[in-house]
C-alpha cells in the first residue's frame, strides 16, 4: 500500500511540475495559460511540494498571494492529514 502512495505522489508531483513549467512557458510566449484553479487543484491532489519548489526555481506565480499563501497552506493541511491518518492506523 505504501509503495502505491509513493508512486501516486511521484506521478502527481511530476505532473504538477510539468504543468507549472508549461504555464510559465506559455506566459512568456503569450499563449493560452493554464487556469489558476487547475494549478491549485494539482497542488491539492498531492503535487504541492513539487509545485512550490518549481514556482520558486522558475520564478512563476511568486507575486501572487493566492499561491504564496495557498500552496504552503495546502502543504500544511496535507501533512496534518497524513499525521492524523498515521496516528489512526497505528493507534
Mean of the pLDDT scores? 96
The share of residues in extended strands comes to: under 5%
Task: Give the overall form.
Answer: elongated
Kindly provide the radius of gyration, computed on alpha-carbon positions and rounded to a whole number of angstroms. Answer: 14 Å
Beta strands, count: 0
Main β-sheet, in a few words? none
Helical proportion? Answer: over 70%
- Which class do the helix and strand fractions yield? mainly alpha
Low-confidence stretches: none
Helices and strands, in order, run as: HHHH
Description:
With about 90 residues, the chain is mainly alpha-helical. Helices cover about 80% and strands about 0% of the residues. The protein has four helices and no strands. The protein has helices at about 1-30, 35-60, 65-70, 70-90. Helix 1 crosses helix 2 (about 35-60) and helix 2 (about 35-60) crosses helix 4. The protein is elongated.
Provide a quick synopsis of the model:
By secondary structure, the protein is mostly helical. The protein has helices spanning 2-28, 36-58, 65-68, 70-90.
Mind sketching the topology for me?
Blueprint: H1 2-28, H2 36-58, H3 65-68, H4 70-90
From the structure above, extract its key features.
0% strand; 4 helices; mainly alpha; 91 residues; elongated
Amino acid at each position: 500500500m505504501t509503495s502505491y502512495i509513493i508512486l501516486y505522489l511521484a506521478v502527481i508531483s511530476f505532473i504538477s511540475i510539468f504543468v507549472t513549467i508549461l504555464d510559465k512557458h506559455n506566459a512568456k510566449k503569450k499563449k493560452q495559460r493554464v487556469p489558476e484553479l487547475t494549478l491549485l487543484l494539482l497542488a491539492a491532489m498531492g503535487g504541492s511540494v513539487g509545485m512550490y519548489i518549481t514556482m520558486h526555481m522558475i520564478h512563476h506565480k511568486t507575486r501572487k498571494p493566492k499561491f504564496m499563501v495557498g500552496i504552503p497552506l495546502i502543504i500544511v493541511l496535507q501533512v496534518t492529514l497524513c499525521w492524523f491518518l498515521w496516528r489512526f492506523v497505528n493507534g
